[in-house]
Write a structure and sequence with these properties.
single chain, alpha+beta, Nuclear Transport Factor 2, Chain: A, 38% helix, globular
Length: 201
Amino acid sequence: MRRILVLLFILIPFAYFLGCSGGGASTNEPSCASNGDTPTAAYHRLFDAVKSKDTGTIKAQMTGTTIQFAEGVAAKQNTPIEKVFENGFTATTFSPTLPDIRDERVNCSMGAVEVWNSKDQIWEDLPFMLEEGKWKLAVGDLFKGSFKSPGKGLAIKEAEAANAARGNMPPPSSNANTNRPPVVIRPPANMPNKNTPANGK
C-alpha cells in the first residue's frame, strides 16, 4: 500500500508536467509555473503601467509576440511606438479607476480575464500568456493564432443562454429591415392635391 502511495506522489506531478508541456515539448515552450502570478494580477500591472504613461513599463506587461505586433503596427501606420502602446491595446484602460474584473480562466500557459470596458459598455475578454513565469497580455499572439483560449468567457456564455431562452431567435433590433420594400404612405382620398386648386379648377 505504501509503495502505491509513493508511486502516486511521483506520477501526479509528472503527469501534470506532461499535460502542460504537451509531452516532449522543447525548452522554448512556455512553462506552466506562474510563481503565484495570475492574469488578474497581470491586468492590474498593465492598468498601472498605462496610467504611469511609461512605454517601457507597458511593454514589460506584453508578450514578445505582442511587442513585435506593436512594432509592426507602428511601422505600417508610420506612428510613434509610444502611441501604439499608449492604451495597452485595450479600451478598458480609458477608465479613470481600475475597472471591474471577472471570470479569470487558466489552462496551463494560456489565460484570459474579462474586464469592463466603460467606454463601449461591454466586457472585454483579454488574452494572457505565461512568459518567463509571468502572465503577460497576448494580443499579438491572438492575432498570430498562437494563443489558445482557455475557455469561453462569461459574456459569451450569458449571450448564448439569452439566445437559447429566445429559442435561438436573433435579438430584436431597432434597425429597419432593409430587405422589406419601403412602405408608401398615401394621403386620404378626400385630401385635395396641392397641385390642384381647392375649387377643383
